[in-house]
What we know:
Immunoglobulin-like, 4 domains, seven-stranded mixed beta sheet, six-stranded antiparallel beta barrel
Amino acid sequence: MAITLISNSGTFRPAYNPIQWVVSSTNVSRCEFVYLCDVYINGDFIIRLKAEAGVNDYGYFRIERVLQDYLSKDFRHNLVGFASNTNSSCEYYLEFREQYNTNYATTCVGSDTISAIQYTSATCRAWNGALQYKELLNFSANSYILNSSTTKFLNFTPAKMRIPLDGYFVASFLQVYSTTPADTLEIKTYDSSFTLLNTYYLDNDTSPVISGAHSSVGCGPQNLNDHSEQLSPVATWIDSSVAFYTVQLLDATTAAVSGAILFEIDNRCTKYNKYRLWWLNKKGAFNSYSFNMVASRRVDSTQVTYDKLLDVSYTEGDRGKSVINVDAQEAYVFQTDRVRKEECDYLEDLYTSPEIYVSDSNLVELSIAITGAVYNSGTASFVLSVPSGYTVPVGTKFIYFVSDGSPIGMANTGGGVVTDIDSITGYYETNVPATINAGALITGYLVANVPETKIIPMVRTTTTFEDNSLPKPTNTAINYAIELQPSYKLNIQSY
Length: 495
């Protein structure tokens, strides 16, 4: 074989760090010799790279810039279960050839020829990570690819990850499915004295089984409850009795193949609207944190004007100085509540992220059509026509009005609470009293405050992060603020 592999940066590598392949050839002394490297990504030929012989007559190929063009992100804040992040990683392999003049003499009077494939690499993987200087010095793929209870998630959370009961969180990880698959997510719940309450399992039973190199699982309280509410019977895994819970990935033998993330339910009250910020971290996962203190909004507006000559016979309302262009941009400042010192490193990544989103959760008053009702062991269950994009979760309080009377012995007007959702029929079970074991199509409407979440893409304008984990005076609170702009303009008008 003319070409021999000398070294490579590894077969599983972050794409925003150097990825270099070095080869040698026994034909390097031939006239007009160059090394050729064909790059295949996800099975498709992408580009042919050329390199002249360098130090030690080796061929040096840096391929990270090629791979970066085929990577982006996968953002799913409300993910239920497992998902493969096909945009966040890719598979690639390389074919090496050589090109040289057919004339062996030094005059190089012959024509150039390209050899057959001399060396083919194994299938390699890259993901959208960018390890920092110190991390890369000690980088080992085995630290991040599912393997044992010491394997790291890509989220690098604090020792205790605080999260509100209605918060979403998505944990991301790397796996080589043929050897170390994530078969199950184990969830253990604890009370305030750290006494084990329950153990739950979320199976990776998506068809086909999620096997991508870069994968995620929804494991925030709301992600898990959205899953458990789909079970039969409906359940709530993370409720007000839970003070802490852990999540950990297991393989098919129930052996741990990842470290555990410890979540602490954050019950701190706030009189302000809660915003949850999401950002793409350096390791290629989306982190999130709640900013619960007062937020402010402003509008920055610029305009271009010109002086217009008035007509001799101008009328009232005609302009002299006139506006050609208006450019208006919103800006928001979000603030955290008190932050623990161990959370500072976690938040630092927010201030350097290229991808930031704000999750704005509000209660929206909806008038929902009632299209039916049935007797259910002394209470009424409603058939509701819920507007697209909204859900009516268990625990929602409501008032109702039935326009044509009820045949199941319930009052024509009243109020109640959604106590359950029948996963088979879709009926919304309530605590509204009913006395007649019959059912009928009725008409009316129900008024309830239901949650609405808007995801807004943002661009950071804050340029400085202060590391408040360093020693501070006693009783000094740690808080952070960040200014963001929506990624779209509020107004662009030209005349």
